[in-house]
Design a protein that fits this description.
mainly alpha; two-stranded antiparallel ribbon; 6 helices; elongated
Length: 169
């Protein structure tokens, strides 16, 4: 589960302002943003994430709209990979898996043979990236769609691979 919740610090402990669905004694990682010191920091990352998704959707839409223009299709793989790398940094771990999968799949895009189905598979995956939380079923569905349109990720990504992915690129 990845969720942002508000809390109040009092008497040496954090008190959540809303319940969370966690098993008893579950270990979690906490990231603290002092809203009084810098109230916008969490929102800026969320806004950047949404903006990046919007840019990617716009890019895919423009390629579809101007399908006959070779330059639009030729620049798609390079720009798509670049935007996905940026998006990876803005994602939480479950979304990072999908984002990394998309970036690996984008490496298979052949600018001379891009299909409408491939564009649709990327658009579908971008919709899944906005889900909170993204599930393993969502990840599997996206992977299957990418494979079906000839854009298989090189391998199935485990958690440790996703965590070190940025160091490898």
């Amino acid at each position: 589960m990845n969720k942002t919740v508000s809390a109040i610090y009092a008497a040496g402990a954090l008190q959540l302002l809303e319940p969370v669905a966690l098993p008893e004694a579950a270990k979690v990682q906490v990231q603290i943003f002092d809203r009084e010191a810098e109230p916008e920091i969490g929102y800026r990352q969320t806004d950047s994430f949404r903006h990046c998704i919007s840019n990617l959707r716009h890019l895919l839409t423009q390629v579809e709209r101007h399908w006959a223009v070779d330059e639009a299709r030729q620049t798609l793989p390079r720009v798509l990979r670049s935007e996905l790398k940026t998006l990876w940094h803005l994602c939480e771990p479950p979304q990072r898996k999908l984002c990394a999968m998309l970036e690996l799949s984008a490496k298979h895009l052949d600018e001379a043979q891009i299909t409408h189905e491939q564009i649709a598979a990327f658009q579908f995956a971008l919709e899944q990236l906005e889900k909170d939380p993204i599930t393993e079923i969502d990840l599997k569905t996206c992977r299957q769609q990418l494979i079906a349109v000839g854009l298989p990720p090189r391998f199935t990504l485990g958690d440790e691979v996703v965590q070190t992915y940025v160091d490898e690129i």
